[in-house]
Amino acid sequence: MFMVAGLAAVITACSSPVKLDESSNVPVEDRTAGSQSGADPRGVARVDTTQGGLDPLNDPKGVLAQRSVYFDFDSYAVSDKFKPLVENHARFLNSNRNRKIVIEGNTDDLGGSEYNLALGQRRSEAVRRMMVLLGVRDDQVEAVSFGKEKPKSTGSDDSSRAENRRADIVYR
Fold this sequence. Notes:
Its main location: membrane. Helices cover about 30% and strands about 15% of the residues.
């Protein structure tokens, strides 16, 4: 029990602060001077879920078009570079409580099958935990692992392997 509480405290301390609306547990957008243009103070585009009835998931130029979180070699920590991507999907899921996702953890082809399945699971769980901390309901998010069995790139060079070290956000 104490380990779970300690882990939650560490994850919370390492993530960027997100203000939540007390009534809905949804992130509140910071209304600073820079946010008038559709970006938050860090330059992250905000999700507009009211695009005249259009589903923002189908907009190839929208912020939700990016659905892969990439990881460093042998790591399952969500880097600062990909936190805005996870935050945008969390905002969308918070605004659309009927939507569900599966986060698919993947690895490169280095290492054994069992190790890669475990690492892929840790990657998908890291993204899932971050979304839950951002207010997404636990029943909206499932984390699975494919290990090295679902490569995005079939090459064996460093850039191909880097492309396979990821967690994909798949809407259902």
